[in-house]
């Protein structure tokens, strides 16, 4: 039985945002440029609206400009593309984020392909995905970046460690695997069709849940002492009828087995926003040259 350490993403993200605020102040003083982030939200999804509001508030707190564009759910694809093109051409905008998921009548890849890769602070454009894969400078997806920051803070060097990423999405699983490979991990991407998923997970020194299935990863899937990063944010209704947030990992079962684990909330989520702000400053720096 080990004492399981809590990885405090909320505190780490707060420290990161304070440091960023200082860097933004210096950048603006030296260049006269205020980094700007534009967020596009199509539709009325209440959870998305909360995230967009949080992003806007934290952007302003860091000394950057926030531009919010809310479009009705029935907006035509060509109107979304026209807005993205206008933001591409806007010199006050250094970062563009189109909140996902988009309504089903809109072709997500067509929208992402229209974002100027140099303003693609989500790192979702194929140019950034490709640049990451071949080891060039790229805007890197925020959630995977936040995960690796927490891992390096917890473990130091990740070289040679067995990392198992459960989930193969374009926004988390695949780019996270690329980043872990860059840190010299031995990387396995597992998914719904993986044979003996519990057994594969038990190999992991670093176990990452990124599937979006509440508490799917059980305590006995975790190798004793492993570092567990929980990317899932699932809203579930408890026995008392109240809504609560749970991750992809059965957090209570992991206690006494995992060496360290991120909580939900207060783990990866806040890091995602801090990394978004960091990417916006990076994009502004590249722009100014
Ligand atoms: N283009 C795009 N980029 C995104 O990065 C993106 C997106 N679309 N669509 C939705 C998801 C979700 N996402 C979160 C960011 C922060 C928290 C976060 O800060 N969570 C806090 C609070 C959670 C709560 O209380 O609801 C926490 O985990 O502690 C959560 C979720 C970004 N996303």
UniProtKB/TrEMBL annotation:
CDD domains (alphabetical): NAD_bind_m-THF_DH_Cyclohyd (cd01080)
Reactions catalysed: (6R)-5,10-methenyltetrahydrofolate + H2O = (6R)-10-formyltetrahydrofolate + H(+); (6R)-5,10-methylene-5,6,7,8-tetrahydrofolate + NADP(+) = (6R)-5,10-methenyltetrahydrofolate + NADPH
Keywords: Amino-acid biosynthesis, Histidine biosynthesis, Hydrolase, Methionine biosynthesis, Multifunctional enzyme, NADP, One-carbon metabolism, Oxidoreductase, Purine biosynthesis
Residue ranges that the Swiss-Prot or TrEMBL entry lists as coiled coil: none
PROSITE patterns: THF_DHG_CYH_1 (PS00766), THF_DHG_CYH_2 (PS00767)
Sequence ranges assigned to domain Tetrahydrofolate dehydrogenase/cyclohydrolase NAD(P)-binding in this UniProt record: 141-285
Pathway terms, separated by semicolons: One-carbon metabolism; tetrahydrofolate interconversion
One function term, GO molecular function aspect: methylenetetrahydrofolate dehydrogenase (NADP+) activity
One GO CC annotation: cytosol
Enzyme Commission designation: 1.5.1.5, 3.5.4.9
Tetrahydrofolate dehydrogenase/cyclohydrolase catalytic domain sequence ranges: 7-122
Pfam families: THF_DHG_CYH (PF00763), THF_DHG_CYH_C (PF02882)
GO biological process, one term: tetrahydrofolate interconversion
Binding residue positions for NADP(+): 167-169, 233
Family membership noted in the UniProt record: Belongs to the tetrahydrofolate dehydrogenase/cyclohydrolase family.
Subunit: Homodimer.
HAMAP family, alphabetized: THF_DHG_CYH
Free-text function comment from the UniProt entry: Catalyzes the oxidation of 5,10-methylenetetrahydrofolate to 5,10-methenyltetrahydrofolate and then the hydrolysis of 5,10-methenyltetrahydrofolate to 10-formyltetrahydrofolate.
Record protein name field: Bifunctional protein FolD
Native species: Ancylobacter dichloromethanicus
Lineage start: Bacteria, Pseudomonadati, Pseudomonadota, Alphaproteobacteria, Hyphomicrobiales
């Amino acid at each position: 039985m080990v004492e399981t350490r809590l990885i405090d993403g909320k505190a780490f993200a707060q420290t990161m945002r304070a440091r960023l605020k200082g860097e933004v102040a210096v950048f603006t003083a030296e260049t006269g440029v205020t980094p700007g982030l534009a967020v596009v939200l199509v539709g009325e999804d209440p959870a998305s609206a909360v995230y967009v509001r949080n992003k806007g508030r934290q952007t302003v707190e860091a000394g950057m400009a926030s531009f919010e564009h809310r479009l009705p759910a029935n907006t035509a694809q060509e109107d979304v593309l026209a807005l993205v093109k206008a933001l591409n051409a806007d010199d006050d905008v250094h970062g563009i984020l189109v909140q996902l998921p988009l309504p089903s009548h809109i072709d997500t890849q067509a929208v992402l392909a229209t974002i100027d890769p140099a303003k693609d602070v989500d790192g979702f454009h194929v140019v950034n995905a490709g640049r990451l894969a071949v080891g060039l400078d790229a805007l890197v997806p925020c959630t995977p970046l936040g995960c690796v920051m927490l891992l390096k803070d917890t473990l130091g060097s990740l070289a040679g460690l067995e990392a198992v990423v459960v989930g193969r999405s374009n926004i988390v699983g695949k780019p996270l695997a690329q980043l872990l490979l860059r840190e010299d991990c031995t990387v396995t991407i597992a998914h719904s069709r993986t044979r003996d998923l519990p057994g594969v997970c038990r190999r992991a020194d670093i176990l990452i849940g990124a599937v979006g299935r509440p508490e799917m990863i059980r305590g006995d899937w975790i190798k004793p002492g492993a570092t567990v990063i929980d990317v899932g944010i699932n809203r579930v209704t408890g026995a008392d009828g109240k809504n609560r947030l749970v991750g992809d990992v059965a957090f209570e079962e992991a206690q006494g087995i995992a060496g360290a684990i991120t909580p939900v909330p207060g783990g990866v989520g806040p890091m995602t926003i801090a990394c978004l702000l960091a990417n916006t400053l990076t994009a502004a720096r590249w722009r100014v040259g």
